[in-house]
Specification:
66% helix; 2 domains; single chain; globular; mainly alpha; Arc Repressor Mutant, subunit A
Length: 288
């Protein structure tokens, strides 16, 4: 693993390199959900076709790595290094992706991309100069993040970090917030250019909270369809406002012809099923 270049900003030479990479990545067409399923099946079958399918799946999602790497980027880190580390995670995800589990490839790959980047930061040390006690806490967070992502495919909560680092939950929350502020897609890559990541990443692929939420809700609904009955699924979706307006137990009961207590019982049974499911890593961040 190569070391991060500890520069005050991305140099003009490095910026040209990143710009060229972004342009190259944009030449690769994105894959549809159906194509992702076909590619995953070919990868599982092995052989020469598997290598071609893996390459196609990776290339179709390189844009997303840039977006994730940008979230970890700081002025004295080399963005190209973060992208390289994220690509390692993307490759790992392409090798392990199982399309039968009910969610899109990138919903799975994002955890491997983040794990790879955060692991590299942890191993190479924090690039920004921080007080030693704060740096130690940040390193602890990266260690906990690596473990949580690998085990449960999610990032740790502030409460989990507080317990792990033996600090207050408020302090844990503040540390996470301070060190994970997303760099704007409209911000220039360096002082030498007005070019931003957003200029080079197609608008239909840029991160947008409403689109991300809609996509995530679709993934969750698809997963629930595999593990719950139709009535359980409807109650969960409406109780937590997944893809619809959040409703109370009584309101749901009236529309279904059930008592409030019966709706509560069905919801608890459904939640118990979800907790036992191997898909819990995706779901538990949104269904508590």
């Amino acid at each position: 693993m190569r070391q991060f270049k500890n520069t005050k900003k991305i140099t003009e030479r490095n910026n040209i390199s990143v710009n060229n990479y972004l342009k190259e990545v944009n030449r690769y067409p994105m894959a549809t959900v159906d194509e992702e399923v076909t590619l995953a099946q070919r990868i599982r079958q092995g052989g020469k076709e598997a290598d071609k399918a893996r390459q196609r799946l990776i290339e179709a999602n390189l844009r997303f790595v840039i977006s994730v790497a940008n979230q970890y980027h700081q002025p004295n880190m080399d963005l190209s290094d973060l992208i390289s580390e994220g690509n390692i995670g993307l490759i790992k995800a392409a090798e392990l992706f199982d399309d039968t589990r009910g969610f899109k490839f990138i919903s799975y790959a994002v955890w491997w991309i983040r794990q790879s980047i955060s692991s590299a930061i942890c191993e190479n040390g924090r690039a920004i100069r921080l007080p030693l006690n704060q740096q130690a806490l940040i390193n602890k967070y990266f260690i906990l993040m690596n473990k949580t992502i690998q085990k449960e495919q999610r990032e740790p909560t502030s409460a989990e970090f507080a317990e792990f680092a033996d600090i207050s939950e408020y302090k844990a929350s503040m540390l996470i917030e301070q060190n994970y502020k997303t760099l704007s897609m409209d911000a220039p890559l360096s002082e030498e250019t007005d070019t931003s990541v957003g200029d080079l990443v197609p608008s239909h692929y840029r991160t947008d909270d409403s689109l991300d939420k809609e996509s995530l809700h679709q993934d969750i609904a698809a997963i629930l369809n595999h593990i719950l009955t139709a009535k359980e699924r409807e109650i969960i979706l409406r109780s937590f406002g997944i893809g619809c307006k959040e409703e109370g137990l009584e309101e749901i009961g009236v529309s279904l012809g059930l008592s409030r207590e019966r709706v509560r019982q069905i919801r608890e049974k459904a939640l118990s099923t979800i907790r036992r499911s191997n898909k819990i890593g995706i779901l538990t961040q949104h269904i508590r």
